[in-house]
Every structure is written in C-alpha cells, then in structure tokens.
C-alpha cells in the first residue's frame, strides 16, 4: 500500500491539485488560527493553505514521496509546517494538543479506523474541532476517486458512532462535483462531518 502511494506521488503533477479542499477551506475561514493536525496529508495542499492563514500545522503521512512534494509546495509558497512520516494507526498523538484536526479523504480498514479515530479524539483540546470529508459507501458507482473496496468507505452512521463522545455540529451525506486534480474529478458521493470536543 505504501509503495503504491509513493508511486502515485512520484508523478510530477500534484494528483489532487494545488488548491485546498473546498470543505476544509470554507470551514477554516470562520476559525481563529491555532494548532492543527492533518493526518494523511499527502502532497500538502491543505497544510500549505492553512500555514498561509497562520496555523501551526503538523502534517503526517506514510509516503516519503508525498512529503517531498508537500515540502516543495510549501517552499514555493514561502510557508512552513511540520511533516512527519508515520503509519497513522501506530502513531501516538499527544493528548489535548490540537485546536483543529482535518481528515480529508483518509480511509482506513475498520480495525485501523477505530484506533486512529479514538486517538484523534484524545488529541483534541477542549472545544477543539475535527473535520472529516470522506467518500460515502455509494461512491462505488462513480469514477471520481476513492477506494474501490466498500469496506473502506464511510457513511453518516459510521462517523456518528466513532465520534459519539463529541458534539457533532454537522453530519451530511451528499452528492457533489469534485474538481481536485485529475484523481478527484466528477460527481462523487460524500459524507462530511464537523464535531467539537466538549468543554
């Protein structure tokens, strides 16, 4: 799996484009910058944009090729962020550390997903926000990106259960048109969530 992502990111083009995810961008505009965690950050489009807004960003991925492209993008934009190489299901996140966490199209097998989501909840500061945009289970009918394995796709009930101890502000299933590079383009079945850590 890691080798396949390194092969994808080894391409010269930024396969998901250079602009931040739309849901991520729209949500951040209403928040005061603080400490942010971006697990599965890939080529760095979201981290670079957040850093430009003044966020202190920690990015994590297991692809060395993704990290190289992310740091190259940051340099071209004259911004900086921390980017570490790690397997997310084996990463221990510091508790009560982050004001904002975003998982943008980061999909895990069930046993890994539960571990990662549980650890991310613990790493949120009181009042901190977590944002998720992922492919819905009905995405298999579309060719706009995402896993081709239904077991790796999400729905609102799954996220509601995983994050039940948080205050869920928004949880929506929808069909939208993606335009994020060549690998996320066209109609897509999505699930989006915004939730906050209770004070």
Question: Can you describe what's shown?
Answer:
The protein is an alpha/beta fold. The protein has one domain: Vaccinia Virus protein VP39 (Rossmann fold). It has six helices and seven strands, in the order H-H-E-H-E-H-E-E-H-E-H-E-E. It has helices spanning 2-9, 22-28, 45-52, 64-77, 110-123, 156-162; strands spanning 35-39, 56-61, 82-85, 98-104, 124-135, 167-180, 184-196. It has a seven-stranded mixed β-sheet with strand order 3-2-1-4-5-7-6. The protein starts with a helix and ends with a strand.
CATH topology: Rossmann fold
Mean pLDDT: 94
Which class in CATH terms?
Alpha Beta
Which sheet architecture does the biggest sheet show? 7 strands, mixed
Alpha carbon gap, first and last residue? 38 Å
Would you tell me the structural class of the helices and strands?
alpha/beta
CATH superfamily caption: Vaccinia Virus protein VP39
Q: What is the overall number of helices?
A: 6
Helix content: 25-40%
Q: What is the gyration radius calculated from CA atoms?
A: 16 Å
Instruction: Give the spatial strand order of the biggest sheet.
Output: 3-2-1-4-5-7-6
Work out the strand percent. 25-35%
Q: Would you identify the regions where 5 or more consecutive residues have pLDDT less than 50? A: none
CATH architecture: 3-Layer(aba) Sandwich
| Structural domains: how many | 1
